[in-house]
Amino acid sequence: MFHGPKNFLITVGCLLFVAAGWPKYIEAFELLVGGTMVDCTQPENVPPRSTVAASADAPGAKPKFRQPTYAILRASRPITLDGRMDEAAWHEAANMGPFHFTWWKSGKKKQTVAKLLWDDKYLYVGHICQDEHITARYKNHDDPVARDDCFEVMLAPDPSRPEFYFNIEWNVRGAYIDGHRANGPKKPSVPWVAKGVRIVGTYKGTLNDDSDRDESWTCEVAIPLANFAKYMKRASLKPGDHWNLNLNRHGGDANMQYSQWSRADTSKPSFHTPHRFGRVTFVNSPALSWNSR
Predict the structure, then answer these.
(1) What is the pTM of this model?
(2) What is the pLDDT of residues 198-255, one digit of tens each?
(3) Cα 260 vs. chain centroid, distance in angstroms?
(4) Long-range contacts of 43-52, Cβ-Cβ distance < 8 Å, separation of 24 or more
(5) Which top CATH class is 59-291?
(6) Pairing of strands 278-283, 165-170
(7) Between β-strands 165-170 and 176-181, what pairing exists: parallel, antiparallel or unpaired?
(8) 112-118 and 68-74: which strand pairing?
(9) DSSP for 190-241, written as a single string
(10) What's the pLDDT tens digit per position in 66-118?
């Protein structure tokens, strides 16, 4: 992790900053240091890549919804899907921030590190899921992965139609389901198949054995942009384009928890709340110019 005194001091400084100013980020940060982050430096003149608008709520008032935002970096180097998130492009991407446990009642909160990247062909999703009891029985497309520990992306590729959205949900073994709500969350899904989705996962621990304690599971996912091309405002993505998007986790046999990047507003668990999705912006990676300094 350390490559000389300068990087050592940078890393120590970043850790102190996190500990002093962002206590709620510590658990996710510790996961990130385990193998998906070199240091905390960020190129100059680059806007924050994962933010939530800050404003004070009146005492006793219900917290106002603050739509999270995230800048998806264009991958500066090829991504090899091996479930490890150890390519340079993942190091350059920002963590999207700790997930919200919107409907939490009891049990240990299993935190998540999530990052997104893109290139001309794919949207990449990389995540590390903290989990002491990993459930993953299914292996095939359209298997009931919601019964396993699973991760989901929901996205609206045209922000002017926020209730026209898609979802893809997978487990660490690469089983996945896909859905499309063309008429909003209150109407049934319409037939749609996400073609060419590639999922590679790794895990620390054992699968489907709650007698021991596991650590985490990690996936790298490549979703072809061609699946959404005819629904976007133009056929190919350009820097500056926006999507509405959310990331969700749930499932498993032991300590089943619901968590998500952008908090829903329902009294009972439901991820189908497109009006509460976050906003992502596709941007060029600053890595090449930064590394050449």
Answers:
(1) 0.80
(2) 999 999 999 999 999 999 999 999 999 999 999 998 889 999 999 999 999 998 888 8
(3) 9
(4) 43/286, 43/287, 43/289, 43/290, 45/286, 46/286, 47/71, 48/94, 49/73, 49/93, 49/94, 50/94, 50/95, 50/96, 50/97, 52/97
(5) mainly beta
(6) unpaired
(7) antiparallel
(8) parallel
(9) -----TT-EEEEEEES-BS-TTS---EEEEEEEEEGGGTGGGSSSSS--TT-
(10) 899 999 999 989 999 999 999 999 999 999 989 999 887 878 889 999 999 99
Q: Is 60 left (phi over 0), alpha (psi -120 to 50) or beta?
A: left
Q: Residue 207: beta bridge partners?
A: 134
Whole-angstrom Cα distance, residue 293 to residue 291? 6
d(CA 121, CA 78): 11
C-alpha to C-alpha distance for 279 and 225, rounded to whole angstroms = 17
| Token pair in block for residue 63 | 């917290």
Amino acid in position 227: N
For residues 194 and 179, what is the distance between their CA atoms, to the nearest angstrom? 8
Type of residue numbered 200: V
Residue showing tokens 């919107």: 102
Q: What is the C-alpha separation between 261 and 112, in angstroms, rounded?
A: 9
For residue 19 the two structure tokens come to 């500990």
Burial of 276 (0-12, 13-18, 19+ CB in 10 A): buried
What pairing do the DSSP bridges indicate for beta strands 242-250 and 122-130? unpaired
Torsion of CA 239, 35, 221, 129, to 10 degrees: -110
Q: Beta strand pairing status for 112-118 and 122-130?
A: antiparallel
Q: Where are the domains of the chain?
A: 1-41, 59-291
